[in-house]
Request: fold
Amino acid sequence: MIDFSHDILKVAYTDANKTHVEITMGNPEDKKLYVHFLPCTEENPDWQDLLTRVSIDQIEEMTKTHFEGLQKIHEEELVDFAKKNGLIYDPAQYTPNSKLNIDYIFNLPETEVGIDFLFELKLRVFDIEQIVQSDNQEWKKKIRDSNSPIEVMYWAGKFLYE
Reply:
C-alpha cells in the first residue's frame, strides 16, 4: 500500500493507454521525494485511494504539463547538440571565408571545415549530369574515395572530357 500521508506533487500517466501512473510525492519535513508507479485498475486499492485525492481531470492535466516539460527539455537538448556539432546554420557566425576558400582546393585543412569542404565538393560533383548518367561505377568509386579536392576534380574531369 502506498503511504498517501505525503503531499502529492504530480500524478502522470506513463503510457498512451493510461494503464499506469507515476506518482511523485514530497515530505516538507524530511525534504525527500517519493515516486511510485501503479497500475490504473479498479481492483487496485492504491488506485482507488488515489482517485479520492486526485480527479481523473487533474491527472490528465498533470500528465499534459509533465510531457510538455519533457518535450521542452528534449528540444533544448537537441538544439544544444545541433549547435555543438555545427548542424544549425547561424548567420551571425557565418563568414564567406569560413567554409569556402579557393585555397582549400590545393591545401585542404585537417579540420571539420576541410572535411565539410571535401564532402560538399563530392556532393556537387555527383550532381553533374554526365556523372549522374554514367554507368562507370569504378570512376564513381574513385570520386567517393578521393582524399583531396584535386583528386575529386581529376576523376570528375575524366567523366566530362574522356
Summary: The chain has two domains: 7-84, 95-161.
